[in-house]
Amino acid sequence: MSTLAIFSATFCNAEAVIEACRERTGHRLVTDDALVADAARLSGLSEKKIENAFAAKASVFNPFTHEKERAVAYLRLALADLLDADNLIVSGFASLLIPPDITHVLRVCLVADAKFRVETVRQQKKMSEKDAAALIRKHTEQAATWVKAAKGDEDPWQSELYDMVVPMDKTAPEQAAELIVQHLGADVVQPTTRSRQAVADFQLAARAGEVLAKAGHNVSTHARDGKVTITINKHVLMLARLEEELKALVEKVPDVKGVETRVGENFYQTDIYRKYDFQMPSKVLLVDDEREFVQTLSERLIMRDMGSAVAYDGESALNMVAEEEPEVMILDLKMPGIDGIEVLRKVKATRPDIEVIILTGHGSEADKKVCMELGAFAYLHKPVDIDVLSDTLKQANEKVQQRKLATGGNA
């Protein structure tokens, strides 16, 4: 029997429908959690970083690290490896990664109106109507962001994306499952030679995508009959050189019969193509209340292929440490509110793996002694030579990467 792919709005009784379908078909259930675990194993990334691919908000460091795109590449690879088998139920966000030309997949969307979902949340979570509505909006934003990334579409519930859209506010889970299984047996979704070839092409495109992601590239891949097409969606000044590099990498993938490159619809926008250099600092948090100085510093680091984000006070810096997982921090001492020494103390208490470089124009020898005792990596004075700062950043980043290797940590 064919494969079933189910994507659902939250609080639409999806779990009950999926379980009823599984009982009726005997199909193997493949969840997002299972694919995340497989993708983490294949990539060496942590499961948390793979899960972040589904998040509505990308990390501020993502333009430099491509972590979200790398996670999606490995989710595609994990999913592609499974599709040789029939009799699967693929549920959740990852179900939308299955290409439409694999026609022996029945694509189902479970939806319900806002009133039904709000009431379901209120009953299950014991929330107020206002809080329930806010939770649903958050989940809908996440779904919309994921559909945009996976399908290039703004509306996660658009009927053109699915073979069936089931209104769960009007359909009991058992009825929905019965209807889905009935359509799963239709001739139009049974495996054919062409749809089997589409699976092989998806697997080939996924392997090509893995090779490119591993080399630090952020492009999309598609395959047909063994020929791989690479799409470049960001502007690059030396396009011919990039195309040669991409082709050289993919031509080495087994079973590739040909490679071509093209530019996508976003190529002519203002974004600049950046290859991720795994050896360069890419998650640097700059903390300084002198806005013009820190913005200029950020721009100068970016010109040197170092990825950075900015915080203008200690409290914002601590919030970003909690949310964004920087690896190196450049920290001023004299700031309003929480000063640099207190930020350093809190960071080292909660995230000792972050290497902190003090960069100050007002520090004393006593301050330096305190900072180094608290675990600062280096203590520099303003104005600082950019080459000295760059070298210090690279040394701090090297220490971070060596620690990861020594502890088996994930990149």
From TrEMBL:
The keyword Coiled coil applies. Keywords: Coiled coil, Phosphoprotein, Two-component regulatory system. It comes from the Bacteria. It holds the Pfam family Cytidylate_kin2. Gene3D superfamilies: 3.40.50.2300, P-loop containing nucleotide triphosphate hydrolases (3.40.50.300). SUPFAM superfamilies: CheY-like (SSF52172). InterPro entries: Bact_response_regulator, CheY-like_superfamily, P-loop_NTPase, Sig_transdc_resp-reg_receiver. The keyword Phosphoprotein applies. This is Response regulator receiver protein.
